[in-house]
């Protein structure tokens, strides 16, 4: 059995001690790639300044990677595909900021395959809120017209922003773990649940 672990090493703001390889807390042995598997685009391309925040899923016999790209002015979400998790083919940007998202969209997101469809939650706007887009082929996406998770009421731990969603399905429901930011800009982890991916409580 093989696994593909994707990360954004440039922006790691904390580290944890590495468990002993092969021990009870680390049953898998990882081999680190010597070079990035997805690099910035050439000058003038939509992802020429930055490539980060991967969300990788298995969809229709291939790995699909939804990631953030930045050209120095605008953040967009792009996609790339791979057969083995190591060699990727970029397919270009698939989501750009629009409507309530203002000029900011980030793939600090979470993709999940539900039946024949990909659901993708991501952060956008100012203050940051959580959006949802859907696709049946990974290339053409339909956005919800409004955010699906908004900031909390005054005095709450997430009154100033909600970001970085990570969604799982468990027991017939969807659970979203996310970062909430309060008025003092402290960040804490929150959780919401949903039956349809749109209405969260």
What does the model show?
- The chain contains no helices and eleven strands.
- The protein has a single domain (43-194), classed as Glycosyl hydrolase domain, family 43 (Tachylectin-2, Chain A, 5 Propeller), CATH 2.115.10.20.
- It is mainly β.
- The model is unreliable at 1-14 (pLDDT under 50).
- Strands 1-2-3-4 form a four-stranded antiparallel β-sheet, with no helix packed on it.
- The protein has strands spanning 50-59, 62-70, 75-82, 88-95, 105-114, 117-124, 129-135, 141-143, 161-170, 173-181, 187-194.
- 0% of the residues lie in helices and 45% in strands.
Secondary-structure map:
Blueprint: E1 50-59, E2 62-70, E3 75-82, E4 88-95, E5 105-114, E6 117-124, E7 129-135, E8 141-143, E9 161-170, E10 173-181, E11 187-194
Antiparallel strand pairs: 1-2, 2-3, 3-4, 5-6, 6-7, 7-8, 9-10, 10-11
Mean pLDDT rating: 88
State the assembly state of the protein chains: single chain
- What's the CATH H-level homologous superfamily? Glycosyl hydrolase domain, family 43
**What are the secondary-structure elements, in order, as H or E?**
EEEEEEEEEEE
Instruction: Indicate the CATH architecture.
Output: 5 Propeller
Distance between the termini: 36 Å
Say how many strands there are.
Answer: 11
Q: Keywords for this structure?
A:
201 residues, 4-stranded antiparallel sheet, 11 strands, 0% helix, 45% strand
